[in-house]
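dude i think i finally got it to work??
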Amino acid sequence: QVAPVESGGGSVQAGGSLRLSCTAPPFTSNNCGMAWYRQAAGKQREWVSGIGRSGSTSYSDSVKGRFTISRDTAKDTLYLQMNSLRPEDTAMYSCQTSFGFCGGRWYDSGYWGQGTQVTVSS
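look at this
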């Protein structure tokens, strides 16, 4: 059973920074694909950023240049560094594991965490 756990959310003023963390063994202790999503109140969930098995990263246009996804397998943690935050970044942020092979096992689907709230005030 994979149970991602996010942390690091909070309230900041526009222009500030936060770093979100997600632990989801074995995905975060191996170089397995993972992603960050967010859902603002009353809106659909949207993909924010992803990291592949090779370490390749990708970002949505809305966060490109401001957010950085990374992982530290020794610490069993996925990160999302968020800089230059804007009020429109306010949302519940969740990490998701990818389906496929990870840690020598096949996973038919991804797993979601409960999320961590980020609130950016103007």
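The longest strand covers residues 91-97.
im so relieved honestly
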